[in-house]
Amino acid sequence: MSFFKSLFAKKQPVPTRTLNHPSELQLNDIFTFGDSFALPQAMRKMQLQVTDINTLEFKHEHHAQIIGQGSGKQLVYLSFPNNPQKLVKFSLLLPREDVEALFDMDDFSEIFEQPGNARLKPLTNNHHYADMVADEYIQQDFMTTGYLHRQDYRGATPPQFNEDKHGQEFEFYSLQGSQETRFVDIFIFENGDTDVYLSFLRPANEIAELWIKE
145 vs 37, 116, 128, 206, CA distance in Å? Predict the structure, then answer.
């Protein structure tokens, strides 16, 4: 009887790929953060599913932006800019009310004024994102042109700006905080939409588990 049971048992599908690094995540795959105190409370032990994969293109590089969502509305963005340590950039998109709660808006407006030498200090440490905010930020990027492609171009070259499928153009502004690992990243798009992210660089192993969703 056991022979027939094993003969006719439904075979589990053999995975067609493996996941060894967050940069290999595909749509619908699942990843889980560890419980490291280096992570903000908003991310610890958080389990997310990949909902979108975009490409951020700059003059000399392009890299994936992987978007994950857990059980709530909070989205977490993973991106993989070139850096010697091969650290992953983890980002949270801030709603306007959080930007206004964290930063003085007069100081914030200086980010967009030439020559781009703004310095920014948070207004409070009593905030649900406080554990991922630097004590001070110094501006690094001013009006850097880039393109957001709402497609995955890992291993390929994004369409150039003069082709029909070019990405959505943006101006990029970035301020760097303590130990060169914490950032405020700002994208201003052609239509005036503005995205403000709190970002920080961490090793890939802060993501404790990766699961393939076939």
Answer: 35, 14, 31, 30
Residue 54's domain comprises 20-211
Q: Is residue 161 part of a domain?
A: yes
What's the total number of domains in the chain?
Answer: 1
With tokens 């042109």, the residue in question is 145
Count of beta carbons in the 10 Å neighbourhood of residue 106: 7
* Residue 68 resides in a domain: yes
pLDDT in tens, 2-21: 554 555 555 666 657 899 99
Is the pTM higher than 0.70?
Answer: yes
Distances (CA, A) of 75 to 35, 49, 50, 69: 18, 10, 10, 5
Q: In the structure encoding, which two tokens stand for residue 139, read together?
A: 């501006």
Encoding tokens for residue 49?
Answer: 């599913």
